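Deliverable D5.2: sample structural annotation.
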Amino acid sequence: MANLTSMSGFLLMGFSDHRELQILHALLFLVTYLLALTGNLLIITVTSLDHHLQSPMYYFLKHLSLLDLCFISVTVPQSITNSLMNNGYISYVQCILQVFFFIALASSEVAILTVMSYDRYVSICRPLQYETIMNPCICRYAVTAVWLAGGLSGLMHTAVNFSIPLCGERVIHQFFCDVPQMLKLACSHEFINEIAVAAFTTSAAFICLVSIVLSYVHIFSTVLRIPSAEGRTKVFATCLPHLFVVTFFLSTAGFEFLQPPSDSQSAMDIMLSIFYTVIPPTLKPVIYSLRNEAIKAALKKVLSKGEFAQRKMYLKTIFKF
C-alpha cells in the first residue's frame, strides 16, 4: 500500500481482507457467474434455433441476453481472480477497458429495455400495425442503434473520467473500477466534466424511463379493457417480467450513480453495485424463461435427446465442408 502511488494501476479493496471471506466471495461469485452464463447462453441458443421464436420480442430478448452475458463478464471474472490470488491490483489499461465496457453495456441495456417496452406497446395496443412497424429491417436498425449508443456513452465517460488528475493513493473501495468510487480520487473534486457527461447520460436514461412508463401506461389501460381473463393473464405474464427487470435495474443503478461522491467508505455501495452488476444478469434468464411458455417449450425441445442428436449431426455435416 505504501508504494501504490508510484504504480500506474489501482488497488481494488473488494469485500474483505480476511482470506477465508475472500475464498467464500470467490466461490459465490463463481457459482453466480456460471449460472448467469448458462441461463443467458440457453436463451441465446433457443431464440436462435427455434423457428417459433423469431418474432421481434425474442430477437430483442436474444440481444438482451447477449448484453447480460458481456456485462457480467466485465467485472465478475476479474473480481474472482483478485480474491483467489489475494491481490486486488488492476492495471491502468485494465481499469480503462473495464470502465468503457461497463458503461457501454449498461447504457445499451437501458436502451434495449426501452426498445422492448415499445415492442410490447405496439404488439398490444396497435396489433394490426405490428408487422409494419416492427418489421425485421426496423428491428435490426434498432439493435444497431442500441449498441452504437452504448459504445458512445462508454467512450465519453471513459475519456472524461481518465482525463481527471488523481491525488493520493489509488485505492478503489469496490470490486471493480466503479466511476463514482473513482471520482473520490480526483484532485480537489475536479470532476466538473464528468458531472456534465453524467448529466447527459442521466437525462438520456430519464427519457428512456419516461418512454417505458408511458408504454406501460398504455399497455395496462388496454389490457384492463380485455374481456377475457385468460387474455389478460397472458399479457401480464409477458409484460410483468420486463417491468420488474426495468424497475430493479434502473432503481439500484440510479441510486448508486446519482448520490454525490463522498470520502467515506460504505458497505452499502458494494451491496448496491452487486444489485445492478451481478444479480440482474443472473435472474433475467430465470424470470423470462419461467414466465414464458414458448421459451420453456423451446428449452425442452433443444435439450431433448432427439433434438440434441439432430443438432449434433447438423454440426458434423457443416464441419465436413
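Annotation notes: The chain has a mean pLDDT of 81. The beta strands are 10-12, 89-90, 171-172.
The annotation will be released with the project's public dataset once the embargo ends.
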